[in-house]
Amino acid sequence: MKMVTLSKVTLVFAVALLGWAYQATRPPPPAILGASGGLPITSPRVRLKDGRHLAYMEAGVHKENARYKVIFVHGFASTKESGFPVSQELVEELGIYMLFFDRAGYGDSDANPKRCLKSDATDVEELADALQLGDKFYVVGCSMGGYVAWSCLHYIPHRLAGVSLVVPAVNYWWPLPDDVRRSAYGKLDARDRRTFWIAHHAPSLLCTWLTQTWFPTSPIVRGERGAFTAKDWEILTELWKRESGQLDRAKATRQGTYESLCRDATILFGSWEFDPTEMRDPFPDGEGVVSIWQGYEDRIVQVEIQRHAARRLPWVRYHEHPEAGHALPDMDGVGDEIARELVLGVGEAPPQSEPRRGS
């Protein structure tokens, strides 16, 4: 009799466990934008070929008078309102039109259930066409937006006039030399390593992992102070005081963390259809510039992988600031350096950091 009861208990437990596992792998539905009783839309938007909408924000000189048209791709847990630190003086001097947009699932842009590396690139292309930016345009990808810049270089190189990858996010499962991978991955907090491992090996469980409260999750994903250098935190604190919208998670994740943060992580750390370090020069005749801007002290994006990419891609201009962290573009004057080199192909090269012992 006891054996029968025990078997029933075991069966009930197994069924309950399977039920939990099934629910854990089912993504929550996104909040609906613009529908009756849904989330309000407060930004202008364009309609894409598949029926989705992308929200955008324009800045700089008027599009009709611009000499250079630049699309900026925001980072993780951020929105178009984060902007980019280019001085008004430089914008007017060079005639730069700046276009910011909410990536799919962020802010006021519709979620994309089929979002992938290629769709993020074609979103940029369709946005440019909808706003009539012409045959070619410039792209700046910051942090997580860096993977979108890599995607643009691979999928729509014929549309690009130049690209800047600013502290661009990296994938520890790219085809990397073992010593580079070990060094970069080993520098991460153990909680970040666990989270990134789940994003790569068990992506369907990532949302559950990030929303559970039993175990500590990634300091990087949570935006904790320890994920930044002291200088980074000082810069970010000043930005928050000015109400710049930088890292406004409430606005960024209004449709749910699955459609924004989780999709970001699973795409970035997933299996890519191409190897960035094997990419061909999109400007073999020197008609455009591709550059990587990296801070040596960055705790979020490890410098070893950026250096490896720069060694493999001699046509990429690599800039490494020895004392900068992840807030590199917000350091005084750096945003102007990035913009000037992007559109003019010239600029004063920042000081390079020599590899330090153990790096």
From TrEMBL:
InterPro entries: AB_hydrolase_1, AB_hydrolase_fold. Pfam families: Abhydrolase_1 (PF00561). Residues 1-21 form the signal peptide. The keyword Signal applies. Keywords: Signal. It comes from the Eukaryota. Residues 70-327 form the AB hydrolase-1 domain. This is AB hydrolase-1 domain-containing protein. It comes from Panicum hallii.
